[in-house]
Design brief:
The protein folds into 3 domains: 152 residues, Glutamine synthetase, N-terminal domain (Ubiquitin-like (UB roll)), CATH 3.10.20; 388 residues, Glutamine synthetase/guanido kinase, catalytic domain (Creatine Kinase, Chain A, domain 2, 2-Layer Sandwich); 129 residues, Four Helix Bundle (Hemerythrin (Met), subunit A) (Up-down Bundle), CATH 1.20.120. It starts with a helix and ends with a helix. Strands 9, 10, 11, 12, 13, 14, 15, 18 and 19 form a 9-stranded mixed β-sheet that branches. Strands 1, 2, 5, 6, 7 and 8 form a 6-stranded mixed β-sheet that branches. It has 23 helices and 19 strands. It is α+β, with helices and mostly antiparallel strands. Bound molecules: adenosine-5'-diphosphate (ADP) and magnesium ion. Magnesium ion binds next to loops.
Length: 697
């Protein structure tokens, strides 16, 4: 193992590389640009680009790319070499400031939801200097935002940066009211815990469903699932450990703070958690992490599955988005602090989050919606589709005491006067007990647990940042005009708790009784992606995003359309893959098995008519019955698909897929899975769940 402190960030053009290679003045100006987001002067960009190029070439790099995050949810790159022809037929290696700060990839093949009219097919990418350039696979990658020439965001990064700006603006107003004149900027921080599965590559290659869709569309349950509860935190297998070691090393080289690794609940399931960092960097790093996981797994004869529900019957994978707000002076605004003043400020920020989660529960749900995640949310293994929040019983008691002006505490009960009294200490471990809450306070941050494992964390953080910015704005509007700040603050906190306590739930989120209770409270239960997505374009949400300049109305509508279409496309590919597998592999296997059984029965009878052939005969009948059912259900699925293809309207189409195509897929699967359980394993065309889940020895 290499020396970690030496390799960490060795492939990143970070502050120390900049300091070492840039003239002092250039370095200072670049720092300033990075801190307050000013645009970079072209002369400075030229110097930076040249230094970056020399640094990269020393590391064997020949190409650079603007690395961006289109609305596909993946990352995109187009490599250009540094070469430039020289007078004598030779080449020199060049990289200009213009090439560093702006690129012009052909944008016409990326989803745009109609934003990028064909006459402006070109989009442009612009360097996000707050996220360092890095070397991946011998290519210098420059993290960029991606926009159309009309200025519309075509990616997941531009609105994220805008949402960070929105919360920065409003949080600073609040901090000024508490007398923090020293704070220059406020940023949100994120530490995303990433779950994934590892399976043997040789089995993966034999499954069209995994190859085309990332999940198994068929597969009878293995005799053993996760019931022994022995995988979570269990000993890590040698092959998996070798993968993790290489992954850590590669992540460290590109500056990702990979910290914790362990086995998860389901067999073959694992998790990686990084140390948190600024939200836009955490988002870049999570994209890199997912990419490297998939690439490095292959080197170990493994395949990394990031799908939310690769296997039926065992837990799926999510991503826990740990989120907080921090000042440039190093203060975590969701940390209760020790003094009455810190406590008061903490309670105000806490209230902003409570109000935001209540008022924008629909948008949080939208931000976690995808065809893959629909299999997980509400399946008693992940949070329900209902958004609620857990603040811990100690903190809840305090909030209730404040709301009711009731005495709080042990022997010497006292009224909690905000700004006067000190909050009692609540130990961190007791704040983190509830693992079933979709949105849990864990001592000094919130953990949003609905996000799917394959999703970019950009969407959820755009919603969180913007919704909390809106609440902080409302608070600042009131408090800036208060005659008596402390009295107004106290009243504001009380009022917020009173009006939004319905969102708080400290019980078991997996319990069905909670879903009924949530409905009584008027909380939304948006079970599927088509249920959730239309909330994107509700008046109040359009107002939220446009008023904070995070999205224009066209941008929201475009994203809504893209997400609905993505749902339809995902299910279309799944349905087509199923019918392909059924017709080419599963039905022929069933038929061959029926023949084998019939041949055996006939052979037995030919040998001696008194021999019992009832096993073969009965089974041949059963297998034939199942193949007929499968054939009929496949026909039904194909008819549904045919109808769907004729639909022009994306909303109608999404609902049709949910109501007609998906149930047809499920019906087809159940018959095929039953056939698998009775068919000779030698004839079954695919590796079994047992091999997939327990195949890494
Ligand atoms: P666990 O959730 O397993 O108890 P931790 O609470 O230590 O573990 O951290 C979980 C994740 O939360 C880690 O990725 C960590 O970096 C992240 N985290 C910790 N503090 C913050 C913060 N202030 N802002 C954002 N993420 C944070
Ligand atoms: Mg956690």
């Amino acid at each position: 193992m290499a020396n970690v402190t030496e390799i960490f960030g060795s492939m990143v053009f970070d502050e120390s590389a900049m300091k070492a290679r840039l003239p002092k003045e250039t370095f200072r100006q670049l720092q300033r640009t990075m801190k307050d987001g000013r645009s970079l002067d072209i002369n400075i960009a030229n110097v930076v680009a040249n230094a970056m190029k020399d640094w990269a070439i020393e590391k064997g790099v020949t190409h650079y790319t603007h690395w961006f995050q289109p609305m596909t949810g993946n990352t995109a790159e187009k490599h250009d070499s540094f070469i430039s022809p020289d007078v004598d037929g030779k080449v020199i290696m060049e990289f200009s400031g213009k090439e560093l700060v702006q690129g012009e990839p052909d944008a016409s093949s990326f989803p745009s939801g109609g934003l990028r009219a064909t006459f402006e097919a070109r989009g442009y990418t612009a360097w996000d200097p707050t996220s360092y350039a890095f070397i991946k696979d011998g290519v210098l990658c420059i993290p960029t935002a991606f926009c159309s020439y009309g200025g519309h965001a075509l990616d997941k990064k531009t609105p994220l940066l805008r949402s960070m700006e929105a919360i920065n603006r409003q949080a600073l107003r609040i901090l000024r009211l508490f007398g923090h004149t020293d704070v220059i900027s406020v940023k949100t921080t994120v530490g995303p815990e990433q779950e994934y599965f590892l399976i043997d590559k040789k089995y993966y290659e034999q499954r069209k469903d995994l190859i085309y869709t990332g999940r198994t569309l068929f597969g009878a349950k293995a005799p053993r699932g996760q019931e022994m509860e022995d995988h979570y935190f269990g000993t890590i297998k040698t092959r998996v450990k070798a993968f993790m070691n290489e992954l850590n090393e590669e992540l460290w080289k590109v500056g990702v703070l990979a910290k914790t690794e362990h086995n998860e609940v389901a067999p073959a399931q694992h998790e990686l958690a990084p140390i948190f960092t600024t939200t836009n960097i955490a988002t870049d790093h999570n994209q890199l992490t997912m990419e490297l996981m998939q690439r490095i797994a292959k080197r170990h004869g493994l395949v990394c599955l990031l799908h939310e529900k690769p296997f039926e019957g065992v837990n799926g994978s999510g991503k826990h988005n740990n989120w907080s707000i921090t000042t440039d002076t190093g203060v975590n605004l969701l940390d209760p602090g020790d003094t009455p003043c810190e406590n008061a400020q903490f309670l105000l920020f806490l209230c902003a989050v409570i109000k935001a989660v209540d008022e924008y529960q629909d948008m949080l749900r939208v931000s976690a919606a995808s065809a893959g995640n629909d299999h997980r949310l509400g399946a008693n293994e992940a949070p329900p589709a209902v958004v609620s929040m857990f603040v811990g019983s100690e903190l809840m008691e305090i909030l209730e005491a404040i709301e009711q002006d009731a005495p709080y505490g042990g022997k010497e009960k006292e009224l909690m006067r905000i700004g006067v009294h000190v909050l009692p200490k609540f130990p961190k471990d007791t704040t983190d007990r509830n693992r079933t809450s979709p949105f849990a306070f864990t001592g000094n941050k919130f953990e949003f647990r609905m996000v799917g494992s394959s999703a970019s964390i950009s969407g959820p953080n755009i919603v969180l940042n913007t919704a909390v910015a809106e609440e902080l704005k409302q608070f600042a509007d009131i408090l800036e005009n208060a005659a008596d700040f402390e009295a107004e603050l106290h009243e504001l906190i009380r009022k917020t708790i009173r009006e939004h306590k319905r969102i708080s739930f400290n019980g078991n989120g997996y319990d069905d009784a909670w879903i009924e209770e949530a409905e009584r409270r008027g909380l939304l239960n948006l079970k599927t992606t088509p249920d959730a997505l239309p909330y994107y374009v509700k008046e109040k949400n359009l107002r939220l995003f446009t008023s904070h300049k995070v999205f224009s109305e066209e941008e929201v509508r475009a994203r809504y359309e893209i997400k609905m279409e993505l749902y339809v496309k995902t299910l279309t590919i799944e349905a087509r893959t199923m019918t392909d597998m059924v017709n080419k592999d599963i039905l022929p296997a069933g038929s061959a098995y029926a023949k084998q059984l019939a041949d055996t029965a006939l052979a037995k009878k030919a040998l001696d008519p008194s021999i019992d052939a009832s096993y073969e005969t009965e089974l041949a009948r059963k297998v034939s019955g199942l193949t007929r059912t499968i054939c009929q259900r496949d026909q039904a699925l194909r008819e549904a698909l045919g109808k769907a293809e004729g639909m022009e309207d994306f909303e109608e189409s999404a609902f049709f897929f949910r109501d007609e195509v998906l149930p047809a897929m499920e019906a087809l699967r159940s018959a095929a899975d039953e056939l698998e359980t009775v068919t000779d394993a030698k004839l079954w065309p695919y590796p079994s769940y047992g091999q997939l889940l327990f195949g890494i020895l």
